[in-house]
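Suppose you are handed a protein chain with no further information: no name, no annotation, nothing but its sequence. What can you learn? This example shows the usual starting point.
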Amino acid sequence: MTKKNVEPRLLKGFQDQLPPKSKIRQEVIGKIISIYEKYGFTFIETPAIEIKEILLGPGGENINKEIFFLETPEGEPSCLRFDHTVPFARVIAQYPDKIKVPFRRYTIGSVWRADKPGIGRYREFLQMDIDIAGTPNTAADAEIIAIMVEVMRILGFKNFQVQINNRKLIDALLIQNGIKNIDTQKHILRVIDKLQKVGIENIRKELGEGRIDESGDPIKGVGLPDNIIDKIINFISIIGKTRKEIIQNIKKHLSEQLESQQSISTMEELDQYLSALDIQDTEASFSPSLTRGLDYYSGPVFEMTLKDAQHIGSVMGGGRYDGLVSRFTDKNIPCTGMSIGIDRLISAMEELQLFNTQKALYDVIITRIGKVPITEALSIAQELRNAHLRVSVYLGKKSKETLGEQLSHADHYNIPIAIILGEDELKRGEICIKDLHYGEKARENIKDRNQYREAGTVSQVTIPREKMLETITKLLDKNY
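A reasonable first move is to predict its three-dimensional structure. Written in structure tokens, the prediction is:
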């Protein structure tokens, strides 16, 4: 009977992480962690699966079609987490004796959303979150924004800007114009949140009677009168050269009521704190059109935009969510935080050529020719690893492989240095080192066969065994 193999394939909306991008991803994560920890954040990890009621609220009234619903072996309704914020709110409420607020945490892990996959849009994706729990102080929001800026700096981005708003500003605008119904307010916020995707004219239509989208489906409008729509459009279109100028322009659109003045005061404080943290207006600016779609945001919200790759969308974002922990406790525990979408961030870095896609997975490969015992290769590898070099011993798929086959493996993974162990050299206490990258560069544009061979010889040296580490270190320092 012929064996039937299972076809290797992925579920729709999922992806594998393969080298070299997986290595780059790991390095990006490490740099982000270094910024998080510099600001005093500590690591917390929560399960991928949560009780359904935890994620959706009592009775599941906030049910969302984008959630992966599961059931435990005991029959308990559960879900794959769709973000890290709700699980963090649970942790803060569940462990009051272990976690003393104010508390700063960061986390790294996959989240899952059962929405429609697309280019750069997956059903499982990695997020890196930070949160500060237990303080209403706007300085906490400022530090979150400062971290967003520092992450972009350390990763090499140049033309970026954090867009910042206060959800309470729009709330105040709506209230002063007689829109006090919570559901109507949420509908308006969801419409405004689509501004970058659909444009101002479509926003105007959705605030009114609605519109027909590109697929021909009707989109229900909010049903606001034209004069109110004009006020909302004028408000979300406010711009200015500096954060201070934008605040002054916002004041012209809001009344003297308490809600408006408190919201403006929050933005003025935020501007002062950002300046104290050395965050320039070009790096973080106020944008009255920013709302962010999640209902639990209650104050300042922020989103990182890329001026050179706007089509990629936001690569990180967050805001203040002072009421979320109250889902689990009667205590008042205000929180603020943000999340980085690693996959989208790396896509942006790749498009803007901020990393080398040919980066080597390790520094040195050790090859053998003739009857060199594998113990020699292992011993040399360990010496180099003790010197903190990344080393792979070529073990092969068969008992003997030619030097060409072994170096082809190094070429596939872009390894810069090869140690070639030969019987005669070892007897003389010598070792052969080949600079694979230099040899490749030296051969560029050479068509003559003899010159091609000579170029390869220049990149290869035979040295005394005791000079191995010194020689390899110099080669790596010089060229890589």
